[in-house]
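Tokens help. Consider this.
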Amino acid sequence: MHSNKYIFIYSSVMVVLVAIVLTVIAVQLKPAQENNIRVEKMKNILTAVNIEADAANAEALYKKHISEDFVVNSKGDKIEGANAFQIDIALENKKSSEKRQLPVYVCTTEKGDKLFVVPMRGKGLWGPIWGYVSFRSDFNTIAGTMFDHKGETPGLGAEIDTRVFQKQFIGKKIFDETGKFVSVKAKKGGAPKDDLHGVDAISGGTITSNGLSDMLISGISVYEAYFKKQQKTE
């Protein structure tokens, strides 16, 4: 039989070896993981402008259609030198509004029209939810959306990541007829067809629907100054 000392040394050596192997594997996989995250972000932005992409063609389509990106502050002024694609919205949300960096992605369509995409992040029932919303050049009308989640209930709150739900937002407006920001809300029981500021909430997914409505309010309102400035130049 081996002594306790032998067993202790053997166990310690094995723990160290396993830790070294796992570290090496993690380091080797990191570039691939980072690339997957980058490509997924491109796919999400493209989805918000109604362009379907997969892992194989996302980068090519992104370079073709996303003609510009930049960062603005809460006053609507551009922040020179900031990289829109590298900004972590989860971290920005923890800052006060006046210190936040707000990315904007510009899509030029086949017809030459421009769509403006903004990212956002919020809270669902079981974890974070996030998305991108694109706007027409009036900076009021929604052109497309993309929403996703970390762990919402399948068949209920998880429905926010379906195109059926997301397409409801196309044509909705975030400002009322007086120019007041009102956002777009997911309404329990359904929204009337002529409601420019409401869509049908997810049946059985009230908390997720409310979380998404809150995300839209908080995620879009920080761009209000920028949108208003652009509207004045139109």
The mean pLDDT is 90. The chain has one domain: 66-233.
